[in-house]
Sequence to fold (201 residues):
Amino acid sequence: MTAGHPGWPARLQRARVALRPLRLRDAARWSSLRVANEAWLAPWEPSSPYPWAQRHTRSAYIAMVRVLRGQARVGTMLPFAILYDDAVVGQLTVSNVVRGVLRSAHVGYWIDKGHAGRGVTTTALALAVDHCFGPVGLHRIQADIRPENAASRRVVEKLGFRQEAYYVRYLDIDGAFRDHLGFAVTVEDAPGGLVRRLPRL
Fold:
């Protein structure tokens, strides 16, 4: 593994939606969004022994960003903030970047409830996938989603991710090991990129 990887850092944009690296000065905005969206986000988040508010303080964000930056520097992650009109409204993380014969990564994302259902997450994911298939040099992007998470499933389905697996008791989410659906898209599935498939915002 070489230090860093192609395509990072990066700012990606389409109309009012953009992706850029998480910044330390995003701490207050991130914390307020996460605390305000507990009911919306908690069912899909990893289990923790700590209360939601304690896990989403400004100091918790700063510690998280420092870890993510370290992983970005060694080429295993692309940690993005999702912006709408230049305000942070969510997060998208390309993680578990593997090179060699696989050239694959996983993607995860969350969005403020007030910005859900407006195409923001779909646009952000399309931007990230096109970037991964372009400058980053990956071949495959995977997303693991709980069957009950209809909103997240719609995002990947609109972009042409195909369901490839059903994982039983796969990840420790919201207090228990939960089943997940495995979705994936490869370069061959996206000739010309995914952004061009999107409607106008």
In short: DSSP finds six helices and eight strands in the chain. The chain has a mean pLDDT of 96. The longest strand covers residues 87-98.
